[in-house]
């Protein structure tokens, strides 16, 4: 039986510092849970003489990754440097040296997860990555263990804290997109270059990881249809409120008859839906299972200690496996072939806002267009635009296939009585 | 390596039928997840010729429990008969015969969990009981694995669907307590004798299980201070709304400096609190961890298939352990001694509603009483009662110790200017 466990840490930034802090502060509880001491043996840093967020013995620091990934004394490598290429090569090296791996790297897992899992499997090693999706929320465990017996049919996630912060502020009337984004940047909830967050790419990566696990299918980033929040304006939010909805950036992973849709887009949810009440920088994943029905996992999506909680809980799992001698035996490879839905198979309701000429027959042209594609309307607001010869129309459709909807949307934009289609969003959760 | 797993089922009621259905319907996925077939070998029923909720081969049925707990072909016993004494003796017998156990029995786990866990440990067997708390929500796994690295300081749970259904209906103005309870009984959300649910006992049992796991401390049912919802009236709900609160039956498990409080009572939560939006028969457990901050697990608290999901997910865990040869090695005995908070250490805010004489100086007497015990007031509504010489007072205090509060409450009832203290509740979540 293993008597102590040595950890090598790649990275001592925000999350890495949190990991060091938690391993120290909770050492007694950790030992009780895993049955032996766990200590940090070596830490990879960029520079030896930088100010640190946590006090560490200088002798632990190194700028040479080989001192960790090739170090025979190290049992588990925790990767929190982020990025793709270096992180990947370190992890592959560590696995080939029979070290178990814990990573918080969503970009890496979304892009190269299948390869890394295969490498872990070949080497009889564990690789855990709970922190890669929704920070402190133990959602991957929820899917893999908690709902192990169920067939998951749909997941809807608020999996990006930055965009949820921005949309929450906009909803509360605290400013338009640009102002609120600036505030988020000042508070550290958004990066200097916010593209990856606000354009939905970050959320897309998390949905790939969730979909792959939840549906047991090797999905890729190219499978996700992505639309960000930078076009959402206050009028959209106001009209949504009037109609009883809240706009959120929602990642959707849906499976019907073995075929899957993955998407990320601003989405209207009924105010009574539990996801509609997930505010500020919080994350949540709503899971529909055939048997369990609807469950939700809610919590902090980022932050030093929440993310470190997931990383160290993964470490606990790895050490328990070491003590039991069962590492590498819990990886289950995807069961199903990758099968994606065609646009005809993707059903949803849509919200549209557009300007039309204020003339006789204009609305007939529009309603005929929708009728022609068998899309019926559930809610409608039409009102004149002050001092202009036009009206603003807001509508919510009944369910339509994405194929039909896209045709209507394109034809609507070309109609002579339509000035501009200002915005259109998916509607979910009803 | 084990090539197939045989299950003995104790009980074929609602949950038992769901378990049979799920094992059959999801057999292919189950096999993929555990690596071998899993089948039901024998089922204990009360009577052989009763109508069933699920089709089963008659040869599987028996009225003799020994054919399951003493059956050498059976590897795992699933107990879903409920009740205490028989269930306990069957489980102990199964464990002594080296059979692993999955149970959905909250009453049994709350009363005899420590003894059953010890027996499992002695026999090198697993005992899993996810379904005993909050039906389909994988909350026990969330505590034990997902937040394994964190120090949990507080849990607040809506862990009884019946009372949440009743309070939700009352909140929506759909009737007073008695009417709504009757409706719940007709819909099957409440038992013919609803005492255990409405008086908080059911919730108390679940809080014992949550507290024991979350705080790693052997807590007992006697440690829970319990108050039910049968005294909640529509006026309380109306005033709570005016003040920005929602009334829920909340189980609280709180730890400070190694000392614990367990309680269940109607509690006012700010409308913005995620638990306030948990409606109808849904359950949710809000968990505060030192590192992770606030997380919430939401889902169905009961029902055939949600509960069966938890039971069969437990079965998956047991079978994985069997395949890996690590059964009985994952039970961690409580780390800390049982230490309960004294009333002086329990801090909370309180809501009070009472009638006072409409005379000069009445309010001064009342406010001096609170001041004397250092309890200050946060919100106050006083209004005359029509056609009577009295006023109705509603107040929310700032934080006070339970000891101080109880003294004030008792003295308030005896004040000559007070006619009646109509209701008083704890206020949490701020």
Automatic annotation (TrEMBL), chains A, B:
NADPH binds at residue 106. L-homoserine binds at residue 191. InterPro entries: ACT-like_dom_sf, ACT_dom, Asp/hSer_DH_NAD-bd, HDH, HDH_cat, HDH_CS, NAD(P)-bd_dom_sf. It catalyses: L-homoserine + NADP(+) = L-aspartate 4-semialdehyde + NADPH + H(+). Keywords: Amino-acid biosynthesis, Metal-binding, Methionine biosynthesis, NAD, NADP, Oxidoreductase, Sodium, Threonine biosynthesis. The active site is at 206 (proton donor). Residues 351-429 form the ACT domain. GO terms for molecular function: homoserine dehydrogenase activity; metal ion binding; NADP binding. NADP(+) binds at residues 10-17. PROSITE patterns: ACT, HOMOSER_DHGENASE. It holds the Pfam family ACT. Pathway: Amino-acid biosynthesis; L-methionine biosynthesis via de novo pathway; L-homoserine from L-aspartate: step 3/3; Amino-acid biosynthesis; L-threonine biosynthesis; L-threonine from L-aspartate: step 3/5. Its EC number is 1.1.1.3. Its cofactor is a metal cation. One of its GO terms (biological process) is threonine biosynthetic process. Belongs to the homoserine dehydrogenase family. This is Homoserine dehydrogenase.
């Amino acid at each position: 039986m293993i008597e102590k466990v040595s950890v090598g840490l790649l990275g001592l930034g925000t999350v890495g510092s949190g990991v060091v802090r938690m391993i120290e502060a909770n050492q007694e509880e950790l030992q009780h849970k895993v049955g032996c001491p766990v200590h940090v043996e070596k830490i990879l840093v960029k520079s030896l003489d930088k100010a640190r967020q946590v006090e560490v013995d200088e002798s632990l620091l190194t700028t040479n990754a080989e001192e960790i990934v090739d170090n025979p004394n190290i049992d588990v490598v925790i990767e929190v440097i982020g990025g793709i290429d270096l992180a990947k090569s370190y992890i592959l090296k560590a696995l080939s040296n029979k070290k178990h791996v814990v990573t918080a790297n969503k970009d890496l897992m979304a892009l190269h997860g299948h390869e890394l899992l295969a490498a872990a499997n070949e080497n009889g090693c564990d690789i855990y990555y709970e922190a890669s999706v929704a920070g402190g929320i133990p959602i991957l465990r929820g899917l893999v263990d908690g709902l192990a017996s169920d067939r998951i049919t749909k997941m809807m996630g608020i999996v990006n804290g930055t965009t949820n912060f921005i949309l929450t502020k906009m909803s509360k009337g605290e400013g338009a997109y640009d102002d609120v984004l600036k505030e988020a940047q000042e508070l550290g909830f958004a990066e200097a270059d916010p593209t990856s967050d606000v354009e939905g790419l970050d959320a897309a990566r998390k949905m790939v990881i969730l979909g792959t696990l939840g549906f047991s299918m090797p999905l890729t980033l190219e499978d996700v249809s992505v639309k960000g929040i930078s076009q959402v304006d206050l009028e959209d939010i106001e009209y949504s409120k009037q109609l009883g909805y809240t706009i959120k950036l929602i990642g959707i992973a849906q499976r019907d008859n073995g075929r899957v849709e993955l998407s990320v887009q601003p989405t209207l949810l009924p105010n009574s839906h539990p996801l509609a009440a997930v505010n500020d920088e919080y994350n949540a994943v709503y899971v529909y299972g055939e048997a369990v029905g609807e469950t939700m996992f809610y919590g902090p999506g980022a932050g030093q200690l929440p993310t470190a909680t997931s990383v160290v809980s993964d470490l606990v799992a790895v050490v328990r496996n070491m003590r039991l001698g069962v590492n590498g035996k819990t990886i289950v490879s995807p069961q199903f072939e990758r099968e994606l839905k065609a646009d005809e198979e993707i059903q949803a309701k849509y919200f549209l806002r557009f300007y039309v000429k204020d003339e006789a027959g204009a609305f007939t042209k529009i309603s005929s267009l929708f009728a022609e594609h068998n899309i019926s309307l559930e809610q409608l607001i039409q009102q004149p635009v002050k001092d202009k010869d036009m009206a603003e129309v807001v509508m919510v459709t009944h369910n339509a296939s994405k194929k039909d909807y896209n045709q209507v949307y394109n034809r609507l934009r070309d109609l002579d009585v339509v000035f501009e289609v200002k915005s259109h969003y998916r509607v979910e959760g009803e």
